[in-house]
Amino acid sequence: MTDLSDCFRPGEAWLDDRGVAINAHGPGLLFHEGTYYWFGEHKIEGRAGNSAHVGVHVYSSQDLYSWKDEGIALAVSDDPAHDLVRGCIIERPKVVYNRSTRRFVMWFHHEPKDRGYNGSRSGVAVADTPTGPFRYLGNFRPNAGVWPENTTTEQRRELNAEEQARLAALELPGGPLPYYPKQILFRRDFAGGQMARDMTVFVDDDSTAYHLYSSEANGTLHISQLSDDYERPAGKYVRVFPGGFHEAPALMKWRGRYFLFSSGCTGWAPNAGRLSVADSIWGPWEELGNPCLGPGSLITNTFGAQSAFVLPVAGRNDAFIFIADRWRPENAIDGRYVWLPIQFMNDVPVIAWQDRWSLDFFDQQTFRTKL
Ligand code: GAL
Fold first, then answer.
1. Rounded to the nearest 5°, which phi and psi values hold at 258?
2. 248 Cβ below 6 A of ligand 1
3. Which of 51, 91, 221 has most ligand 1 atoms within 8 Å of its beta carbon, as the pocket-test mutant?
4. Is 325 near ligand 1, meaning CB less than 6 Å away?
């Protein structure tokens, strides 16, 4: 067995404290009272593993290298009438801690069983301890009845019947299209709530939390403030990059600026990573390009992976880990994790491949290169 107790080996099998491969894909991490918690999708073998048959798995660690299996934080249900019935979709779970309620709040992308990805819903569950079990509160499409902040008065109009019918005739498979109607879908979904697929949750320095999700058939990102208890949308959101087709959002804040990692929309297949920056979370957002450095194929497909999370390393300045998934849709359980240190060049985060690295990397001064 590979000894992984003192280093990261991106893309290689990563075993837990019992010698079993860590099963927590599309991960979100939480640092709480000296311990890291890693939450992710528990996958099973084969193609069936692309939907939820077990639930959200959680592991804990003190050092980020060795992980203890803490079991299933949110379990699927055997009741066919339950939203989270075995075989539904639960993706990209993210857990945040709310200091006022002292509850751990989990958000995830939810799709009802056997209905593809058109549900585009957000699920919420809460727990009193980080490892759960989490109590499922429900799912919904966010921001029903709320207009995005950054829309004009003319755009704040629901679609009429004819516009609805024209839109219903369009195929919107979730990737870029020449006829993508980039100023229409949020109006269609005004009453019922906005579509929400790939997602993350980010807690800012002032404790305000935000839900970022691919909306409008993946064509537009939404950044949506959460309520003070983090359990609902607060009713304030913006649309970012309409028609840009970003997914896999992962947000970090560094020296007062927000950096958003994302990908294009090619399903489980990797594509070139993307990085965007803003001085305010509400924008304006600017696209900076591909943050990956290195030769050819490595950087054009984000090292074969897709962004899931950025982890600030506790107790270290300027230390962030880019966390991504190498999906294996034909045998989902064999998906791999790619953890790489974020470096800064000209005050912009970049990522370079490392076969093997450890947290000492962040002690090197050279990683803060100025070109
Ligand atoms: C990916 C997405 C995954 C999953 C998959 C399904 O693009 O990032 O979380 O939804 O598509 O095809």
1. -100, 130
2. yes
3. 91
4. no
pLDDT in tens, 337-362: 999 999 999 999 999 999 999 999 99
Is residue 119 within 8 Å of residue 210, measured between CB atoms? no
Per residue in 143-183, pLDDT tens? Answer: 999 999 999 999 999 999 999 999 999 999 999 999 999 99
CA-based angle 254:245:146, to the nearest 5?
A: 80
| Ligand 1 pocket member 199 (CB < 6 A) | no
Q: What is the pTM of this model?
A: 0.97
Residue 318: CB partners within 8 Å, gap ≥ 6? Answer: 254, 344, 362, 368
260: nearest Cα among 237, 241, 233, 236:
241
3-state secondary structure of 105: strand
Cβ 247 under 6 angstroms from ligand 1: yes
CB proximity list for 28: less than 8 A, separation 6 or greater: 39, 40, 92, 93, 94, 95, 200, 201, 308, 309
**What residue ranges of the chain have pLDDT lower than 50?**
1-2, 371
Quick: pLDDT tens for 38-56.
999 999 999 999 999 999 9
DSSP 29-41: EEEETTEEEEEEE
Within 10 A of 121 (CB to CB), how many other CB atoms are there?
Answer: 21
CATH numbers and ranges of domains, the chain: 25-317 (2.115.10.20)
Residue 168 tokens read as 């219903």
SS3 165: helix
Quote the CA–CA distance of 162 and 181 in Å, as a whole number: 15
Q: Report the greatest alpha carbon distance in the chain.
A: 62
Rounded Cα distance between 338 and 361, Å, is: 16
Token reading at 110? 């939810």
